[in-house]
Amino acid sequence: MTLQLYKAAVINCKFIELSTESTLVCLSRVVELAQLVMQWEGDYAIYTKIIEIASLPGTVGRVGGEGLRGICRTVFNRKYPAMVNILEDLTSLLSPSSETTLPVSMVLSLCNVCLEHMDRNNADPAFEKVLGGDFCKWCLWHSQTEDLRVLSEILRAVFNLFFVSSSYLRVQLEVFLQSVHLRLLHPPPSPSNSEDFEFYEKRTDMALDSLLTFCYEPGVLRGLYVNYDCDLTAGNLFEDVVTNLCDKAEAGNEKAQWGVLAVIDGIGLGMQNTPTISVSPPLPSSTTSISPPMTPLPPQPVARTSSSGSICVDGESLNILTEMKRHKSKLLSVTSEFNNGNRNWVPYAVERGVIQTENAGDVGRFLFEQGGVDKTKLGEYLSKGPAEKYPFNAAVLEHYSACFDFSKLTFDESLRVYLRKFRMPGEAQCIDRIMEAFSQRLHECYTRGGGGEVGRREKEGEPEITTGEGEAPPTPVRIREEIPQNPFRNSDAAFILSFSTIMLNTDLHNENMKEEKRMKVEEFVRNNRGINDGQDLPEEFLINLYNSIKEQEIQLHEGDIKKKGIEGAVGDWGELVADGGGWKEGEGVEKDMFTTIAAPTLSALGHILATTQSPQLLLACLSTFSTYCSLSSAVGMHEEFNDALASMMREGRRFVERVRGKCDQPWRGEPVWLDGWEGDNATDFRGLLALKTSLHLTSIHLPSIRLSFLLLLDLLYLLRSLGCLGMLGEVEDFEGMERSCYAEMVEGRRREHEVSMREGQDATGWLGGMVKQVLWGGYDYGSEQADDEESLEDSDNSEPSISTREAIRKVFEVSGLDSALLAPTSNPFITRTLLSHRSIRDKAELVSWMWEDQAVICLEIATRGVKGGGWEEWRDEILAILEQTDMPYLVERGIVNVLKTFIHLYDDASADVKKDLLNLVNAIGLIKTSVFRHVSNRVAAGISIVLRTCKFVDASEYAVVLKLCDRAAEFRAGRGFVAAALDAVVDEDKDQLVGTGGWRSVVATCCKLSGGDYEGDLSYRERAQKMVADLWSHAVGTGMKLDFGIAMSVCQCLDTPELLQRAIGSVGGEQMTIDVWVRLFREVFLTREFGEDGQEDDRMIWSNMLGRVVLVVVFVYGRDKEGGGEDLKGIVKGVIKYLGDNARNTRAAEVAEASVQIANNMGNVFQFPEFQGEGGIGEWGVGCLTEEGFAVVQEGMEVRGGEGGGREGAGEGGEGGEGGAARCVPLPPPPLSSQLSI
């Protein structure tokens, strides 16, 4: 009851006197009472009463206005039925014809209160009708105002509409953004006075503020992209908004700069989400296609219902949207070629896949379907003639006209639809050709399906009219239940009436014609008598046609409704909004969004980085740069990534160059507040942050590096000159190697250069606090200044003052770039760039030490990446380096890198790469002696690792590597490494060496070490002999065949009787051919001479060896009477003679006895049955012994030699005297196995 009383009190309140204070208090109480009532009952009558109060002037009106805001907030919060009525009423107050005294700004403010308290995506048809109709229309109308408060409320309303009703306001929102927001960003170029300039600047700022609210809502940006940029019938709204923001940002507008950063950051955030797309139900379309599209379009997203009841699309929708965007880009490119008058646009369209063939039918259908075609150009193209001269254009016009279906349209509707698609040319002959094509198509459609005359209006609705993409249907429309017969007897009648109708349209709607002179209906009917093949057209038909033209003008020269400006859009609002469609909420499209706006945003980011004077904006810009680089790297846009990185590198390089001369001066640790930077401090602050960001991004996105790597190299050279490269500044060497003289020379020159650069430079102390913030603490540009100051003070107390050099070194260290560059990379571009940037093949005649130092850096980094690509370039560059004579430091590093690469790649390399590596090793051995002498230790150390780690399968591989060992051993610095390397490989890989034949090369080198061939150095003699003995023994043990070369080398190396006895005595007779044995006996065994003093033991050992070896050979080749032949007899005879000389000429009794014993053993062997018989070596051998003076007992008989025999007989019961013969006592023959081995 009380509520009803309150309600009645408010509704029945009357306003008599407004000037007194008591009246104001009373009205205030009425407003409060109204708000209280509305809390319980949302009665529309209460609202209307408060509207009356708000319409009153002065303070009373303001009180009512505040009450209205509370009422609107309550009604829409509580979802009272009065919501629609209130919104309709407020919309009516926005009409220019409204007589309300309420300010437009207040009405718009109330509308915004309603919108902000409505449910998001409210799909109530009642709201759709209000918001999509008059509300948007009158907001667009008022956007032309000079009242900034009104404009502010309109911009606020547009943003609210995106969240409340975007599902059914797709076209309206596009018009708002194009006609209001983007228009306001471009004020007139030359305002008449300063007040106008200030006014336009304020409007621009307001538009930017509104766009910023969109930029900070990633969902809104996605919606713009999905619903406009990916829609074939809409403009590229997202791209246009961002491009305009970028233009303003580059012009120095800070708000636009923040907007650009927000767009990129929003896209980066969205890339982390799972790609899905939810689509609102599409609105009924006002147009239908009369035939399939001429070119295959991408499939549309297929809707499905989720478990929650919302409508979304399947997993293919993201790809579908992407394909739609690509297809749209193709269509726009072809359309642009047509609009620009390119005569070859048809072949271009076929090449792009937009038109299937170059025939007139496909071209005509494309021009009919593509909404972006310039209407003036289209009219000129279609009407080009005559047909005899331009038959293709005439055929296109015919096929183009055939795309229209006029069978269900009246004559004037058909003419409107036809002429709306293009701009009518001005030449009479062109008009004739167009109207002739129209009349023929019209008569064909009427003949086939009837139509033409206006029938009875039995029901309301919209006709199905195909007008092409983006075209609205004509109004008014007429729908018939019954369609009469075709009124035209032939197409000529339709042609004449078409001309007559156009003349009527001009007469009735010409603003310069007086009313009394305009054509009357009777005149129109009279003028068209007898045109229908000699007969009259139905009078009712002509009267209805006259009235239709009088009611609505045929627009002969209209353009795109969306681009006609605000007044044109408002005037054609019904047609405009009829072209609506469903709103799609897109996710997962950020990749395509980024590729669309990557170029303009990068340009804007670079401008912000280089020019901003705001530390907060600078920090945010660098953060966005990081996001941009991550996005471009992720989507494979390497060019954009490198351009972004290059922008930061240039700033970082300028900073390092500025402070290079101050690098040893201490920082005083003075904090630099973000709001206090200026001058050089601000410039250096920008440079240090850019340096840190660029190095960090390079380290984490190294595979994406392309052209920016050249800038990086220049920056690295500069940092190296300061000694700030960390591990990258220290070249990698073999373990245990000290710095070479060449490296010391370059380092000394570098230090001298730094000293010269620092002379006369003063210190700067401001950087201390800044670096502590940037490097150790980091900036948080979103925090309060007081917090920043407190943290900086704490850091000043905890961190000591450091030098500028240390700060830059710290920047490089925390970036992790040194580790990234030194790690194996899969980016062949980096390798090739490194090799070409400081290529020895392209150098001038004279280069500086600094150039050489930089070339070393390039070579070191390139070597790490050669496995990932660029092998041929690396190989050729290394070969060129090894041929140099004036850059020894670079040559040294080339050698080390060749050997390191050999170690890492050889085993898994292809045959071609292995061949290249062996050629490089061979090239090292050809280096000039003056250089090689100082690097021989590194060569030997590398070869040592090569021999121990690489698995060679061929003797030629060992030959190449050991040839380099041989060259390194020529110099004392490398000789020890060579000996150690050979020792290690012999100890660990005998099987590999012997199996591949590589042991022969090892033996050859060891022979030189043993013989003192290297500068007469015999310090490695014993080690070399041991290695040879081990290898020979291992080879003999495998039973392999041995040639004279290797046997001779072993004999030369093992030149002591004891060593040679062990080596040769272990060889099986069959392991060497008789020819090899013969040569060894003739050239080595039988030529050895011993003195009489102190060499008796050696003589005796040598004699034993000869006796044993010759018997081994005899047992192998003496059984076959043809096996040994004269060669075998020759060495047997030589040994017997050698023994005879020993027995006769030596003064040492033990040597003589040993010789006689050896001869005795030989005699025993010769008596074996297998050596007997005609031509056998046994009888011949006994004869040789006898001739040499040895006595041989055969079957109990003593055989003595001739005169001049031995001085003393030997054997049991023997007697000797002067000139007597030695006696050989027969011994039991040993087993065959013991005869063949030691």
From TrEMBL:
SMART domains: Sec7 (SM00222). One of its GO terms (biological process) is regulation of ARF protein signal transduction. GO terms for cellular component: cytoplasm; endomembrane system. Residues 450-477, 1199-1238 are annotated as: Disordered. Residues 1211-1220 have a biased composition (Gly residues). Pfam families: Sec7, Sec7-like_HUS. Residues 1199-1210 have a biased composition (Basic and acidic residues). Residues 320-552 form the SEC7 domain. One of its GO terms (molecular function) is guanyl-nucleotide exchange factor activity. Coiled coil: none annotated. PANTHER family: GOLGI-SPECIFIC BREFELDIN A-RESISTANCE GUANINE NUCLEOTIDE EXCHANGE FACTOR 1, GUANYL-NUCLEOTIDE EXCHANGE FACTOR. This is SEC7 domain-containing protein. It comes from Triparma columacea.
